[in-house]
Each structure stands twice: as C-alpha cells, then as structure tokens.
User: Which sequence fits this backbone?
C-alpha cells in the first residue's frame, strides 16, 4: 500500500484527493501552520478519508523521521517575494504571507523539499510538484 506525503498541504486538496481516489494509500498531510491543518481535518472528514490520513504540524518533512515514502507531492509557496504586492487583492489580503512567499526567486521550498526527499523516498519513489508557469527547477 503506497505511503504518500503532501507537504505544505494547505487545505489538503491534493492529499485528500489522492486518498479519495487511491483507497489503498495512506497520506500524511503536513503544514507548518495550524489554520490550514484545521481546514484539512474538516476536508478529510467530509471526504471520509480521515482513517487513511494523518494530518500533522510539520516543518516540511521533519515530522516523518524514519519513515520511507512511495511519493511526495507538494504545492508549496512559489511566488517571488517581489511579486507579492502585485497579486490580486483577494489573494494578497486573504492568504497569509507565509503561504505565498517562496523567497527571492520563488523556489526556496522546492530546493528544501527536494533535498529532504532524498532521504525520505523509497528507491522507486516519486516527487511531484505544482509550480508556477514561469518557473523551472
């Protein structure tokens, strides 16, 4: 049975969708902020996947020490710091700064997660990101 981590899970949309469609999977939903984790818990319950998910406060993959994963998925903060003031008002004023800012080039979290993934993924494990359309690793 696949074990998957959704890093920077936010509302849990990605991880909960995976758990919903892959009935054999167990999904860790990880975020550093408590408010999105509360939303993830509600969404997991609404989608009847709470028994196949673990929702945890974690700085990236730190809470999964000793675990080996089949896959890591993530939609981390990817907006360049300088672009945040130019975002649409409903995004800029609704989302916490930490949920948007990916550093100077927008790729800080991708680099960190990629490094951490090396010790967390099984040999044939997969790493999948959502990334800005003008960005590349």
Assistant:
């Amino acid at each position: 049975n696949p074990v998957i981590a959704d890093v920077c899970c936010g509302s849990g949309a990605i991880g909960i969708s995976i758990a919903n469609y892959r009935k054999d999977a167990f999904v860790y939903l990880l975020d550093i902020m408590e408010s999105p984790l509360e939303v993830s818990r509600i969404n997991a319950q609404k989608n009847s996947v709470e028994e196949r998910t673990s929702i945890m406060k974690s700085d990236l993959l730190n809470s999964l020490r000793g675990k080996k994963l089949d896959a890591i998925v993530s939609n981390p903060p990817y907006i360049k710091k300088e672009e945040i003031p130019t975002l649409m008002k409903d995004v800029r004023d609704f989302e916490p700064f930490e949920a948007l800012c990916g550093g100077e080039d927008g790729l800080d979290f991708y680099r960190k997660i990629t490094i951490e993934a090396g010790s967390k993924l099984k040999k044939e494990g997969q790493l999948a990101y959502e990334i800005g359309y003008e960005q590349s690793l």
